[in-house]
């Protein structure tokens, strides 16, 4: 037996594959962890009983040793202050606090006012309208909000640079405007836990009677995910939905915007129905908590778990060459061992490397977020050929633009000829690959049409993605989705650090 034990230890040290080592000594391979990000859109500032619902949920979770994330509306925070509900504030302070817009459903909502604005003006307007609520939530809860999520489906891409400037690192919500196969991703410079798959399937039905179905689904998710390196489940609730007969913000349905004195308070559900809702939640939490590989995390913990490895990395010349060689006419993000790169980051690194004509000992970094183009631009369908000196001057200009504006240009100018930035990136990467060993650049450079592959992760404008009863009848915005496609340059998977 001692010989067998010694042999097993020797094999475990020698073999790099832990699963094989475990099987040799009769143990199963370690299973991946399941991280559950539980969050609450804490928004109803009309129905007073919603305050107690939020307190009850927060207190229960504290008793269970679980921290959640409460995304609070600015007006909700001010209402708690006016009502002197320090008990509610203190209960929520034991958890992570996020931000959920200033007035939520009062018009104009974020997508409405952003739908008429360009990239720069939209970012400024988001800050003008939403920063006061963010500051009030921070002041009242004495905690810097860790995340933001839009009211309803009132999503707008111009929010991202504003949020980043406030120090918000996480976009946390559910909608269909952008997504990456249900997984956490980076977009607009922020970690996005958005448009996920599992959490919405664990939500209650209208009567909160589907507990057994939800347990079965969670058990299936658990088995699938733990056998495949683990993963994250984003699960949300609204404190008000546990008690009300109708969402509070139907006061503002279909574009209505009544003054405060005309706001209607919808009645509570019957007592047994309210208790059934709380029982559903408490049973589901206890059930998920009972699984050994489950870990509940907050917004700040998610930011650390999915920290962007590219931001602290120094890229060597050999790495930059590998990055250049991976660039294809279908311009996509790149997934490497320790980090991922968005198309914008690839463009930034290669532009700096090529423009500075860095040698084999040089390195580069990504000290700032680089956003996508601010305007949609018609994409040429024919190749353009220019002499190398002109291409080199355009390369210098591109690098200067990115360093100055922290953004990919709408077009790269080859003298008087504009070309799509993705087409220029492909040509630049090809030249870098061919000249890395000391070879001369070509006399003529061909810039052929290319396509930004990450655009496929941005939804097309349709009534479905704007299906929120608060919007005016027929609201949609092709303009916002065009701007969103420009920011597909910033999209990449988020790698888990554990």
Description:
- 39% of the residues lie in helices and 14% in strands.
- With 498 residues, it is an alpha/beta fold.
- The chain has 2 domains: 272 residues, Glycoside hydrolase/deacetylase (TIM Barrel, Alpha-Beta Barrel), CATH 3.20.20.370; 139 residues, no CATH class.
- Strands 1, 2, 3, 8 and 9 form a 5-stranded parallel β-sheet that branches. A 5-stranded mixed β-sheet has the order 4-5-7-6-20.
- The longest helix is centred in the first third of the chain and has 23 residues.
- It is globular and about 80 Å long.
Topology (SSEs and partners):
Elements: H1 2-14, H2 18-24, E1 34-42, H3 49-63, E2 69-72, H4 74-82, H5 86-93, E3 96-99, H6 110-114, H7 119-141, E4 147-148, H8 159-166, E5 170-172, E6 185-187, E7 190-193, H9 211-226, E8 231-237, H10 271-289, E9 294-297, H11 299-305, E10 315-316, H12 317-326, E11 330-331, E12 334-335, E13 340-341, H13 343-355, E14 363-364, E15 384-387, H14 388-405, E16 412-414, E17 417-419, H15 421-435, E18 444-447, E19 451-452, H16 478-486, E20 492-493
Parallel strand pairs: 1-2, 1-8, 1-9, 2-3, 4-5, 5-7, 11-19
Antiparallel strand pairs: 6-7, 6-20, 10-14, 12-13, 15-18, 16-17
Helix pairs in contact: 1-2, 3-5, 4-7, 7-8, 9-10, 12-13, 12-15, 13-14, 13-15
């Amino acid at each position: 037996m001692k010989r067998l034990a010694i042999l097993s230890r020797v094999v475990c040290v020698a073999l790099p594959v832990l699963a094989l080592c475990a099987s040799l000594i009769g143990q199963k391979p370690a299973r991946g962890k399941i991280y559950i990000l539980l969050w609450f859109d804490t928004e109803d500032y009309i129905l007073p009983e919603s305050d107690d619902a939020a307190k009850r949920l927060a207190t229960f979770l504290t008793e269970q040793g679980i921290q959640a994330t409460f995304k609070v509306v600015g007006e909700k925070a001010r209402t708690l202050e006016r009502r002197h509900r320090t008990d509610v504030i203190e209960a929520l302070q034991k958890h992570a606090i996020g931000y959920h817009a200033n007035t939520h459903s009062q018009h104009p909502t974020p997508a409405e006012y952003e739908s008429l604005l360009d990239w720069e003006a939209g970012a400024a307007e988001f800050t003008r309208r939403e920063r006061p609520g963010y500051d009030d939530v921070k002041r009242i809860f004495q905690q810097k909000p860790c995340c933001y999520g839009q009211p309803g489906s009132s999503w707008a891409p111009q929010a991202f640079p504003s949020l980043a400037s406030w120090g918000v690192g996480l976009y946390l919500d559910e909608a269909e405007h952008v997504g990456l196969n249900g997984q956490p991703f980076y977009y607009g410079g922020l970690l996005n836990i958005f448009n996920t798959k599992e959490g919405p399937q664990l939500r209650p039905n209208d009567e909160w009677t589907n507990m057994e179905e939800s347990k079965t689904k969670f058990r299936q998710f658990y088995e699938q995910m733990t056998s495949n390196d683990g993963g994250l489940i984003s699960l949300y609730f609204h404190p008000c939905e546990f008690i009300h007969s109708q969402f509070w913000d139907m006061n503002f349905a279909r574009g209505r915007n009544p003054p405060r004195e005309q706001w209607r308070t919808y009645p509570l559900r019957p007592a047994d129905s309210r208790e059934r809702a709380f029982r559903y939640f408490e049973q589901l939490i206890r059930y998920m908590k009972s699984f050994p590989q489950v870990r509940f995390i907050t917004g700040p913990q998610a930011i650390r778990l999915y920290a962007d490895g590219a931001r602290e990395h120094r890229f060597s010349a050999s790495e930059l060459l590998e990055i250049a060689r991976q660039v294809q006419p279908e311009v996509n993000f790149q997934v490497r061992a320790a980090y991922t790169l968005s198309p914008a980051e690839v463009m930034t690194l290669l532009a700096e490397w090529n423009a500075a004509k860095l040698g084999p000992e040089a390195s580069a970094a990504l000290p700032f977020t680089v956003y996508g183009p601010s305007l949609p631009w018609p994409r040429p369908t024919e190749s353009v050929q220019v002499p190398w000196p002109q291409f080199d001057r355009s390369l210098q200009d591109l690098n200067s633009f990115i360093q100055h504006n922290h953004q990919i240009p709408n077009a790269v100018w080859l003298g008087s000829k504009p070309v799509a930035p993705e087409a220029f990136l492909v040509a630049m990467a090809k030249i870098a690959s061919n000249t890395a060993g000391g070879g001369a650049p070509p006399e003529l450079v061909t810039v052929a049409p290319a396509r930004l592959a990450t655009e496929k992760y941005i939804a097309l404008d349709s009534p479905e993605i704007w299906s929120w009863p608060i919007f005016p009848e027929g609201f949609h915005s092709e303009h916002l989705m065009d701007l969103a496609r420009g920011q597909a340059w910033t999209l990449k998977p988020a790698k888990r650090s554990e």
